[in-house]
Fold these 4 entries.
Entry 1:
Amino acid sequence: MAAIASNCSLHEILQTPCGSSRNEKSHVLLSECNSDISAHLSSCHLSKCGDVTEAELIMARAGIRGLSESQLAGMTICPKHRHSLGRFWRAPKSCPHPGHTGKTVSVSGRHVINFQMTEEISVLFGKITTAVGSRKYLFPCDFDEKIPHC
């Protein structure tokens, strides 16, 4: 993999700092992110999405959609962003739904937000608000509000 030495493309998109992770320090091209993520997809209850590449998973979690091959070819990623959005990502422990307010509720279970749901949430709210693999919430966090069940 080619080593790149500046801030990665995700730094600019997510506005979060770059860094090293798991003893890796070199930036790589996002298009070269092709590690086996089948075990990660299984642990996130997304095993039916087995044809997803590591780069596609990272882009979905970062809210990057509709890029051409030439746009993707120039994007770089640091180890910190690659691991935190890729195979070492972990689901949030509380409800991240943008319409749920009030007391923080712990979410658990095997029902998760998949790629299609993330796209639909993005269309409804105008931005990515939940990551692929986040747990699906079955009741509203604030019981005083009349928010439909997810």
Entry 2:
Amino acid sequence: MVVSSKKAAIEMSMSTVVTIVLAVVFLILGLVLIRNIYGFATSSVGTIDEKLKTQLVSLFADENQPVFIKPEDGLLQIRASTNNFGFVIGARTKNGNDVAKRSDIQYRLYVDTNSQCIKVKKIPVATVKSWFPSVSVASGESDNVYNSITDYTADQGFVRVQVNIPSGTPLCTQTVFYDFVDRTDNSTSLPIGGGSFQIEVLRKALL
């Protein structure tokens, strides 16, 4: 009877160990799955290398498209506590002049003060502007604060814009406008065109 009890105890111990091991394995798998789900950020653009430049140039196949943004839908889904998220905007010169220096094509960004982040969530305009650490952001449409492009080829110029969304930023959507001007002729400044993109602030990743 004693031997039977010991055998049962050993079998129970083995079952407990197996159960614990399986539980730990499933817990690890669950954490990995959660990290993959919550830890993603919409694919951001890194440095503008030659391969990417080729893709960007192809976006200008339409002669009537003076400016562009990549991602092409203009929706940037960025999690709070994300740094160095990047996207690319670009333009071609007004009359087909080649770009000789970075200041030949310039751009500006300015925030939409009627967007949800500012108007509803009451995030200060200065805070939204600070999301762009390497770019001077205009206060409005009448504010002529321009930045030079960083890369160019032939009559086309591009710039990678960096975005940082601080931890604790409320979930919201913010529209930002951009304009390009052609300054290949130093005596004039020709408007090329503009557009907008939306920053959708997502919940901070769990891991």
Entry 3:
Amino acid sequence: MRSGRKLSALGVVAGGLTIVGPLLAYLGAVRPIVGFGFFAVGGILAVLLAVGAIVRLVRGRGLNPGSATSLLVAAVFVGLIVSGSDHPRINDFTTDANDPPALRFAATLPENHGRDLSYPPGFAAVQQQCCGDLQSVHVPVSPAEALERARRLAETQPTWRLTQTDPAAGTVEAVATSRLFHFKDDIVIRVRPQGQGGSLVDMRSKSRDGQGDFGVNAARIRQFMVALRTADGTQ
């Protein structure tokens, strides 16, 4: 009976951690990676407790509220892990791995002090295997107009905050913030002349935390580049 109560209490703790972690990060009380750490610890604990709960069910002992909580939390946690297992454990993606756009203004932000914002050379081969579709986009307008289109489109992104537009360098930089944990990713869009009055647009998106990003940065680049390719300058 006593062990059952302990397991039930641990189940409640596991469920609490998976709620408190995201909540604290959302409120800004802790860093996003710390909030995610609470969430991960709660999820791992829930998985371990869920195994015990299943054993109890097989033995016909039934479920207490804590065990039921563990099963529910474990199912959600494992589902998230499985959904992210198809993505490589890198957190920096670009449309030009040979000459990736530089995050120059991002490097001046206080929160990036001491961070290495260069594109890791080893990521290029990994990215090519999973995301070979991330390619530069040709826009049949002048670099100035292409940069303006990119800036206007970036302004419409709900989770982005523009940090700099540099016409001389042909770049737009921004920071994207995730809705729940408030993880921040640094973004740069680069425009260069190509052909007779046309422009070549490249993009890079890099997470500040973690080793993997669950495919967020690659998906962001795909969505933005498709929108830019189909834009007619009337946004």
Entry 4:
Amino acid sequence: MRQRLAKNILKGIGIGGLAVLSMASPYFGVNLVRGFRKYNDKKSWRKFYLSLNYLNRRGYVQIIGRSDKGITVKVTKEGKDIIKDVDIDLLELKRGSWDGKWRLVIFDIPISKNKNRLAFTDKIKKLGFVMIQKSVWAYPFECYEELMILRRFYGIEKYVTYCKAIEVEDEFSWRKKFNLRGKKTNVE
């Protein structure tokens, strides 16, 4: 229960970037996170405060200041990564004009992590990656940050490699798979 509340608090603070949580207002929970219940009793405030301290101890938020008006809280880089993990189902890859570079995902995940491998490959397929070989997938647009999130989320960081390629032997067939027409742009 506390971890779920903590994730919701973290997500809510992440929306604003910096939050001042007022103990005086019985409706701060509604303002903090959409869908939060109204926190208007001491027991609810205590749960909220314990969850906030949990997030602070784990390094996901930084409590900047405390005063009679409330608590000022900032989400850390680690907290932002957790927020992204919480929304893994909402993760999408950007598209735009192709810069002529191929983003490759190469992996060799051990059998002991078979469930993780299957979930990872299913997710990258849904995101639009195309399988080039059994453990090699390609995507024509920038996706480094999203891939790092997925690797960590599935616990397979050390088995997955990301690389960019500017020259591919079978480029015409790759371009066809992604419906890319025209010339490359911005190739270094």
